[in-house]
Amino acid sequence: MDLTINGKAVQADAEPDMPLLWVLRDQLHLTGTKFGCGVAACGACTVHVDGQAVRSCVTPASALIGKDIRTIESLGSAEQPHALQLAWIAEQVPQCGYCQSGMLMAAAALLAANPHPSDADIDAAMNNICRCGTYQRVRAAIHRAAGAPQIATAQAAPLASKAAEVTA
Ligand code: FES
Ligand code: FES
């Protein structure tokens, strides 16, 4: 089947009911998207479909033909990190890191829809599970990326440099 992933046309050899997550990881080797629970409960497998956060472990790839699928690999780069990636570094969010790509994709969809979310907005949108308990740092990083008043824009340049080191 023909899919559009991270702006590129790709062909997947998948049965109609194969979840997108399997296509991403096993066929396309886009392993940034993680398998956690497999039943839409944890959010580790979150990607964007037409800008919406979607759990790829329970979404058949065949339902996504003609849609714009985006994975963590397209969120930013070492040269041009997403504001959330800079904020994640500044707030030292990741611990083991396993849930973090899903967290970032959920946060990116939230900010795209609501550029200045309240704590309640964040708590409502971010129902991803983190075994390391990074929830408070995730919230702080989303506020930072949203340009909360406590964020000094002067931090942007050194953070970009740091992000390049980390992702190199
Ligand atoms: S692996 Fe998809 S929600 Fe947990
Ligand atoms: S950082 Fe370890 S599970 Fe979230």
Word description of this protein:
The chain has 168 residues and is of the alpha+beta class. The protein folds into two domains: 2-74, Ubiquitin-like (UB roll), CATH 3.10.20; 83-167, DNA polymerase, domain 1 (Orthogonal Bundle), CATH 1.10.150.120. The chain contains six helices and five strands; from the N terminus they run ββαβββααααα. The chain has helices at 20-27, 83-90, 100-113, 119-125, 135-145, 156-167; strands spanning 2-5, 8-11, 46-49, 52-55, 68-70. Helix 2 (83-90) packs across helix 5 and helix 2 packs across helix 6 (156-167). The longest helix has 14 residues, at 100-113. The protein is globular and about 40 Å long. The protein binds FE2/S2 (inorganic) cluster (2 copies). One FE2/S2 (inorganic) cluster is lined by residues 94-100, 130-132, 134.
